[in-house]
Amino acid sequence: MSTHPELTVSDNQPDLTLIQKQIRTSFDKRDLARWTTLKVGRVYRDLILAWVGIGIAMSAVSQMQTGWIYALAFLTIGCCQYALFILGHDAIHGSLHPHRTINDRLSNWLIHGPMFMGMEDGRRSHLEHHRTLGTTADPDRYLHTFSHKASRFKFLLFCSGLATFGKTVLKVTPFGRLLAQTSEAKSVNSPKSLASLMSVLGIYLKQRLAVLVTQPLLISALWVMGLPWWAYPLLWIAPIYFCVFLPDEVRAFCDHAVLLTPDEKADARRLVTFQPDWFEAMIFSPHNMNYHAEHHLLPTVPYYNLPAVHKVIGHRPEITVRRSYIAFLFRVINFLPQ
To answer: Which residues are within 8 A (CB) of 3 and not within 5 positions of it... i.e. 6 or more apart?
Structure first.
């Protein structure tokens, strides 16, 4: 593989944990207090706007069931779902509401549950990603590195979501932990009992109570609107894959990838921020998710304050700033062998 001009990597560079610690110690305490102040009204506004957008799209389809209306509704609902998903990401960090119970209930019932997700498992995996970024222990490392994307074909397969869907879904369920425990138990000749599986199933169902309640409500709403049965998979389930899962996998790659191999040489450079135009931001990084280096440095800063953090640290050489997600994807294709 070829190198890229954006890279200037020293063999003696410090690890990413040390780099992040050094940057964090440079922040002014008054800035930190201002940045971490939560604005609950802003959160409620953005939650309402997303659900109103979904409601308008579904109502439009119920009034005019034509192909182009379905297509427009699909895109609108998908963009609103992704915006909700990013709000759920803030909830994982406890940054949606100052009261933890309200924070979690908002996320479970208005974000994660409607999208078939359990917040607690997502929180477990995502916080581990923050703790281990730039190391082989990172549960999201398969998204960031070139180990399984070492050709243009493999990279395009990754961009389709087919190469990572199963692993990503398993990662954010209790079954991922069960498989890891079972593998560890086999390595020491200590088989797991059926009770372990039943316990995991119980946890899975408990954490997805919101899923079990909200999905029938969504189906009922579509039925009341006079939409056919296939409107549910077409207008609700499919957008979750194509407009939430896919762009978020690609964004996660772009927000951590460095055009350098082997992967270990890139680990100290995985603090990346994008500054896309409004259209790319809507598709790949709603609610300021493009300020990803800033988010890793200060995970409890809510999404609406990340631009203020960028103004203070965006110039630092430890942070790579890129303009366009799409342009970077083309650079990756040119970087990879056929």
So the answer is: 259, 260
